[in-house]
Specification:
This protein is of the alpha+beta class. Helix content is 51%, strand content 15%. The protein has helices at residues 9-24, 28-34, 39-47, 66-77, 81-101, 104-115, 227-263, 275-303, 311-334, 345-357, 362-374; strands at 121-124, 140-143, 148-158, 166-173, 176-183, 190-194, 206-216, 220-221, 265-266, 269-270. Strands 1-4-5-8 form a four-stranded mixed sheet, covered by helices on one side. A four-stranded antiparallel sheet has the order 2-3-7-6, with no helix packed on it. A two-stranded antiparallel ribbon has the order 9-10.
Amino acid sequence: MGDLQLSDDNAILETVKHFVQNEIEPLASKIDDRMQIPPSIFEKMSSLNLFGMLAPESFNGVSMTFSSFLKVIEEFSRHSPSIALVLATHNAIALFLLNRFGSQQQKDALLRDMAEGKKIGSVSVGNKGSFLNTDDLNFHARKSSGDSYSVSGSNSVILNGSYGNIFLVLCRFDGEVGFVILEDNDGDTLKVKARNLLGLKGGGVSSFQVSERRVPVANILGKFDVGHDIVGAAQENFCLFMSAISIGISKESMKQAVIYAKNRVQFGKPISKFEAIQDLIGEMAIGCESSSALLKNLGEMKSNGDQIGMKAVILRLLSSQVAAEISRSALKIHGGYGFTKDYPVERYVRDAETVKILGDANHDLLMFVGEKVAEGHSY
C-alpha cells in the first residue's frame, strides 16, 4: 500500500478506504475504550503522508485540495471519528495556519516535521474550546525581558492536546489578539490533561495550562493586523471538517442500520420489509444526501478560493443535527442490541452527541446564525 503522493483523487480515496477498513476499523472499539490511539497507528498514518495532506510538496507534503481532504476525513469518521478529529485538527488548523500565515523561519523550523508526523499540531482558540467567541480569552502574553513575551493562562478544552508537540494558542497582547507557537519542551510551564468525554474518546481533547512560559517574538504567528484573518480561517476550517466528521458518522450509522435490518427476522421476514423501518431508513438517506451535497459544494468552493463565510457554520449545525438523528434512529432499529457494545451504533450515538457540543454547542451556532441573518449579513 503506497502513500498519498498521487494525482488522482479516486486513487487517494481508495488507498484511504483500504487503510481505514483494514487498520482502523478493527481497533475502533479499543481506541474508544482506552481513550488512546496506538503509536503504531500514528506510524502507519505517517508512512501514508496523512499528516501532510495540506502541506506543500516542498515540505514533503501532499498538497491535497481541501475538497479531497474533507473526503479523507469523512472516510476516517465512518469508523473512528476520534482519529479523524486528530488528523483534521493537525492538518486543517495547525499546519494550515502555519503554512498560510507563518514566517519563512517558522515554516522551515516546523512544517516538514509536521507534514511527516514527527510533530503533531494542537490548537487553543476561545475559552472552553469555542471557535466563535474569542473576545474573552484566558491566555495573556505580556512583554518580558528582552525580545520575548511571558505567556500564562488556561483552557478547559483544546484540540489534540494529548498528542500535541506544537501548540498554537490564541492570546491577548495588551489589547491585540494573536496566536503564539509553543513547543512542548518544558513540562514545568506547560501542562496537558486528557478529557474523558462522552464520545470522540481517543480524539486528543484535553485541558491545557501554561504558566509564565517565555516565548520569543519570532514565535508569534503572523502579524496582529491579520489576527482576524487567522482566527477566521481557523473557524471556517473547523466548521468544515467537523461537518465531514458528522457526515461520516451519519453514513456509517445508516449502513449498519440497513445491514442489521436486512438480517434481523421478525414474523417470518426481515424487519427491513416493515414500513416503520423503511420510514426511518428513508429519513436517514435524505439527511445523508442533503448534508453531503452541501459539504461537496463548500469543499469545492474552499478549494477554488471562494468566500464561504457563514455557510460553513450553517453546514456544521445542519450536519451535526443530522448525525445525531441518524445515529439515534440506527439505535432504534437495533432495538435492545443497540445498547450493547456488541454493535458499534452505541458509539456512533455518543460520538454524534459529542460533535454537537465540541467547540461551540449547536444552540450557540443557531443563535450566531440567527443574529447575523437578522443583521443583514449575506450567506
